[in-house]
């Protein structure tokens, strides 16, 4: 009888271990969010705006609370600017189109009301090169939502010296996708 009980115990232990390893393999190792930015700067920025800021962004947060964020942004002067400066409204180059690539790595995730925030010193490029204010830019990125959709909004606030170009108010966007990334089962 002890022999049967020992075998049952061994088989049960093996099954528990096998099931636990399958469950552990499905625990999310990271969460990935992505979406678009659709915002405006104030007119008081330099060069004079307002500017439309459009682009895509993505963020990965690992289980230890470290986030990586990147955004590819287009900036063009808005229609409002064109009405104030009607020299050649049919020439797209008068809107001074340019791009910015923003990346923030190893940022700490902090809980805020309605979501979370990451902040740190990001690398910012302008048309693939160095912007007039340099490539090291402090930023604060908030992801928030509501009762029906946990994460729906993203907001990027640029700190000095980049706030002279982007303004001191947050540039908003939307969260389009949230994915839980799991470890691969071996």
Describe this structure in words.
By secondary structure, this protein is an alpha+beta fold. It has one domain (28-182): Beta Barrel (Porin), CATH 2.40.160. The protein is built from three helices and eight strands. The chain has helices at residues 2-25, 79-84, 163-166; strands at residues 28-40, 51-62, 66-77, 98-112, 115-126, 136-144, 153-158, 171-182. An eight-stranded antiparallel barrel has the order 1-2-3-4-5-6-7-8. A hairpin with an 8-residue loop joins strand 6 (136-144) and strand 7 (153-158). The longest helix has 24 residues, at 2-25. It starts with a helix and ends with a strand. The model is unreliable at 18-28 (pLDDT under 50).
Descriptive key words:
8 strands; Porin; alpha+beta; single chain
Distance between the termini: 37 Å
Q: Which regions are unreliable across 5 or more consecutive residues at pLDDT < 50?
A: 18-28
Q: The CATH topology, please?
A: Porin
Estimate the helix proportion, in percent: 10-25%
N-to-C series of helices and strands: HEEEHEEEEHE
Radius of gyration: 24 Å
Number of domains: 1
Summarize the biggest pleated sheet.
8 strands, antiparallel, barrel
Number of strands: 8
Beta-strand percentage range: over 45%
Mean pLDDT: 82
Tell me, briefly, the overall form.
elongated
Summing up helix and strand content along with how strands pair, one would put the structural category as alpha+beta
The first-level CATH class name: Mainly Beta
Give the helix tally: 3
Q: If strands are numbered along the chain, what order do they take across the biggest sheet? A: 1-2-3-4-5-6-7-8
CATH 2nd-level architecture? Beta Barrel
